[in-house]
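We read letters as residues; the fold follows as C-alpha cells. A sample entry reads:
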Amino acid sequence: MSNKIKKNIFAYSGSGNKLSTCTTLIKKIIAQVETDLADSIEIHSFVHTPNNTEIINCCGCNQCFLAGKCSMDNKDDMKIIKEEMLNADLIIFATPVYVNNVTGDFKIFMDRLAYWTHLFRLLGKPVYHVISTSNSGIEVVQNILDSFSLYLGLNLLGVAILSGQNDYYNPQFTEHCDIVKNALLEKRSKCFGPDMNRAFLAQKIIFQQYDEKSPEYQYWKLNGFFELETLDEVLE
C-alpha cells in the first residue's frame, strides 16, 4: 500500500489554441512537478481548456446570488469544475492577452463563478497565474486575475509571464516549478496578505446588512466570518 500523500491540481487555461503557450506551460510545469515529487506525492491534475470543457455563457438571471447556486451548472461542465476546485490543493489560472484583456472564454469562466467572489469560497488555497502576450496588456490582465483570485480567497503564489517566443526550459521554468512544488509541500506563509484582509473586512460590512435569510448571509454566518476581525484568525 502506497504511503504517498495525494494532492490535486486544478488548472483552467482560457486559450482555445491547441498549441497554446499558456496551456503548454501548465502541462510542462505539472509534468516536472510530478517527476520531482514522485517519491512522496501522488499528483492528480485536472487541466481544463475551451477545447475539452463546455462552459455556457452566464445568462444574467442572478439566481447564483439570490438562491446560492447557478441554475446552469447541470447543463455544462461547471458542476464538475467547481467540485475539482473545492478539492484542489493548488489552482492555476492561465490566459493569453486578447485586446489587452483576458480571453472571452476565461471571462465566461469568471462570470460563472461570480457569486463565489462574495463568499471567499476557495479561502486559503494557493493559486498560480500564467499570462502570455506577444507585446502588451500584461498589467491589465494581471490586475484582473489578481482581483479575481483575491475575492475567491486564494493565496497568490506568483505569476509566470510569457512574452514573445519563450524557451520553457529557461531558469524561469525552474522557478515556476519550485513555487508549485513548495506550495504542494506546504512550504508557504500561513497568513493572508493585507489586500485579502482589507477585501474581507469590506465584504463583511456589506453582508452584515443583508437579509439574514439570504444564502450569502447564511454562508458567512455558518463559517463564522462575522465574528472574525481578520482572516488570519481562520488559521489560528
